[in-house]
Amino acid sequence: MATYLDDLLLGARRRVEAAVAREPLAALRERAVDAPVGPAFAAALAGAGVSVIAEVKRASPSKGPIAPDLNAPTQAAAYVEGGAAAVSVLTEPDRFGGSLADLADVAALGVPALRKDFLVDPYQVWEARAAGAGAVLLIAAALDEPTLARLHDEARSAGLDVLVEIHDEAEAAAAGRIGAELVGVNARDLRTFVLDRDGFARLRPHLPERALAVAESGVRDADDVRRAAAEGADAVLVGEALVRAADPRATVAALLAAGGDATAGPATAPAVDHRPTGSEAR
Ligand SMILES: O=C(O)c1ccccc1NCC(=O)[C@H](O)[C@H](O)COP(=O)(O)O
């Protein structure tokens, strides 16, 4: 029986086909390398304490509509004022209500931005680059290992960082083999939507030694961030709790403080970008 994840992957393939018909890969690449490179994503997470990757999320398969009227750049600006190191933007339209326009609008703020979507084709990597993203998400559960490695290499050659998302020991090992430098443990099973709140602690020792570790999904409050910090997270990725918050700026600041960053508060300096320039990424 087809799962939600299968449907999401099928939808992604269909959107790629339609997009290629409008703009072939060669033309997209040409446009992408001429666009300014987005601020570095991974470097922004490497500071003291647990960094916050704050997500722009209007809806989800597990919850339905969450914040349907959310304005992506306004929400992202509040996150940045609260001290978020980076912003995750769901670009999947059918179940999450997102778009590449949201990604471009958020990236235009000058914040490191992650394209969070169901990537199955190099074309989507170049769409992210053209929109000004600093990173893309690759979901190990959605890709066989050769495809995961190919998309990882494509993203790196496009000058993007890659957050490799895993759910178990086998996927953690695959992340190591492909040279992942940024690995997220998603507490949410993408087929059943059940949250495994012990998953990060269980999988943390299996992550590639030098990789930054991100705890994704189900982070509700300061206690959850304290727990992630104690379990060895470098960053937490938080969606629903922030889009439902009455004051997203203050909520990010409170999560950041719980993560042990003595400098918690409004972000003042952009992250240093050590990645290739647009023409070097060509
Ligand atoms: O959120 C879902 O229901 C979902 C279902 C199937 C695939 C992916 C899904 N979410 C994407 C994410 O990974 C989360 O948006 C992200 O980690 C933030 O999670 P949360 O803080 O629990 O909103």
List the helices and strands and how they pair.
Blueprint: H1 4-22, H2 25-34, E1 51-56, E2 59-60, E3 64-65, H3 72-82, E4 86-90, H4 100-107, E5 113-116, H5 122-131, E6 135-139, H6 145-157, E7 161-166, H7 169-177, E8 182-186, H8 199-203, E9 212-216, H9 222-230, E10 235-238, H10 240-243, H11 248-258
Bound molecules: the ligand O=C(O)c1ccccc1NCC(=O)[C@H](O)[C@H](O)COP(=O)(O)O.
What does this structure look like?
It is a single chain. α2 packs parallel to α5. β8, α8 (199-203) and β9 form a beta-alpha-beta unit. The chain has one domain: Aldolase class I (TIM Barrel). It is built from eleven helices and ten strands. It is globular, with a radius of gyration of 17 Å. The chain has 282 residues and is of the alpha/beta class. The model is unreliable at 262-282 (pLDDT under 50). The strands form two sheets. An eight-stranded parallel beta barrel has the order 1-4-5-6-7-8-9-10, surrounded by seven helices. Strands 2-3 form a two-stranded antiparallel sheet. The structure holds ligand LARABZUK. The site of the ligand O=C(O)c1ccccc1NCC(=O)[C@H](O)[C@H](O)COP(=O)(O)O has 19 residues, from β10 and α10. One of its GO terms (molecular function) is phosphoribosylanthranilate isomerase activity.
